[in-house]
Specification:
alpha/beta, Rossmann fold, 6-stranded mixed β-sheet, 3 domains, 34% helix
């Protein structure tokens, strides 16, 4: 059974994203004094008093968008209101009632949804002088809060739980059984088709799709429950471009959130434009994925346009080109898809989840050491001071990524080229060809190895 949906709504700049981030316990939505920062619906699966709900942040009602996307933002707000089991109607305690607040109130009354009126920015008792005036909006007593000062949030959480229908017994048991859900970050440069891909995967207009570059600003966590298989979270991210070309701080914050999405995801889909050359931004994203040792699917989007131009083209024709342009990710699985038509969209997600499962695997110690012995017999390190580097023993110390601790005679004798060689050999011998591996070196002696083996 889906989680109840609690949507945060209100006019621009009343503190919706600040409250969303505070309740989520993470800076998911971009916060700024500029109206219209949030465009899409941001969703976070939140636990409150032992039950799960989908907390939804929305754009400001009545916003004037800098890229004339008001209609698209408004559609996302309407979808959020329509799907909500509970609305949090936010007003600014410092401004009192505004004409736009009254218009929002009229709209919410027409929607007929259960609504809690929340007065924000009540940082001190003195700032609550306008609270009685909000009765005129017709939603009862406003709940005074300050998300930044953490005032009134306990009462707000209690009010949210009280306003939702009680859990059925089967829902309680479902909540107790919930475990970690895999997160997949969808990254790429601007206008590569990420938002179109997201909408294909979930089967609805979840995010704004536009030919205008830079439409998505936040990183959007979207819970996906497929008909077959386990649920997962798909993180849609802002399209990136060169830092020197960024227009404003909002684009910079979007860039930072994309990097954070990569760090907190278990797997990554790096979307590339099959009709265009792989450029500097693609390489920078690839380097960040590699730096964080994330399993990655290289997804060539707009494959339908490539095939229309050259019907005989095969994915293999692109493989060497991609490996040459993104050498650090030469081992990654390659997929061809069309986000617009849905071609291979679900298969790409399934492939990424398979990579995530591979990265969580453990290797037997005997198998690991046999693979290392074979690798050393094929190629030795360069001699330094008349001595060769030797691996005495190895063990796996972590998963996701698989991390191997090698006890060696002298770590300085293992240069980066030789560590890459060992990594490639381990991928081949341990059937981990498509995921990143991490190798750590520890100085030891043959006498000490008896403690570990």
């Amino acid at each position: 059974m889906p989680n109840p949906s609690v949507a945060i709504v209100g006019r621009p700049n009343v503190g919706k994203s600040t409250l969303f981030n505070t309740l989520a316990g993470s800076r998911i939505a971009i916060e700024a004094d500029t109206p219209g920062v949030t465009r899409d619906r941001l969703l976070y699966p939140l636990e409150v008093d032992g039950r799960y709900l989908d907390l939804v942040d929305t754009g400001g009602i009545g916003v004037i968008d800098s890229q004339r996307l008001e209609a698209e933002v408004e559609r996302q707000i309407s979808l959020a209101i329509s799907a909500a089991d509970l609305l949090l109607f936010l007003v600014d305690s410092r401004d009192g009632i505004t004409p736009l607040d009254q218009a929002v109130a009229a709209r919410l009354r027409r929607a007929g949804k259960k609504t809690l009126l929340v007065a924000t920015k009540v940082d001190t008792d003195r700032l609550g002088v306008n609270l009685p005036s909000f009765h005129a909006l017709g939603f009862g007593d406003p709940l005074p809060i300050s998300a930044k000062q953490n005032r009134g949030l306990y009462a707000l959480r209690e009010a949210i739980v009280d306003a939702l229908p009680p859990l059925a017994e089967e829902e309680k048991s479902e909540g107790e059984e919930k475990g970690e859900i895999a997160k997949i970050a969808l990254v790429g440069r601007r206008n590569v088709g990420k938002s179109t891909f997201v909408n294909q995967i979930i089967g609805s207009e979840r995010v704004i799709v536009s030919d205008l570059p830079g439409t998505t600003r936040d990183s959007l966590d979207i819970m996906v429950t497929p008909a077959i298989g386990e649920p997962f979270i798909l993180i849609d991210t802002a399209g990136l471009r060169k830092r020197g070309q960024m227009d404003d701080s909002l684009e910079f914050f979007g860039h930072m959130r994309t990097e954070k999405a990569v760090r907190r995801a278990e797997g990554v889909i790096l979307m590339l434009d099959a009709t265009d050359e792989i450029g500097r931004v693609d390489k920078q994203i690839a380097a960040y994925i590699l730096e964080n040792f994330k399993p990655c699917l290289l997804a060539l989007n707009k494959w339908d346009l490539v095939q229309a131009k050259n019907p005989g083209v095969k994915l293999e024709h692109f493989a060497q080109y991609v490996a040459d342009r993104l050498p650090g990710l030469h081992f990654c699985r390659l997929a061809a898809l069309s986000a617009r038509d849905g071609l291979n969209a679900e298969a790409s997600v399934a492939a990424t989840l398979d990579l995530v499962r591979q990265a969580a695997s453990r290797v037997g110690t005997a198998q690991l050491n046999a693979a290392l012995m074979a690798a050393q017999s094929k190629r030795a390190t360069r001699a330094k001071g008349g001595k060769l580097g030797r691996v005495y023993y190895a063990t796996q110390v972590e998963t996701s990524p698989p991390t191997f601790l090698l006890f060696v005679n002298n770590p300085s004798q293992f240069d980066e080229n030789y560590k890459r060689y060992l990594t490639n050999q381990l991928r081949k011998e341990l059937a981990l060809e498509e995921i990143p591996l991490r190798i750590l070196l520890k100085a030891s002696s043959e006498k000490e190895i008896g403690r570990y083996s």
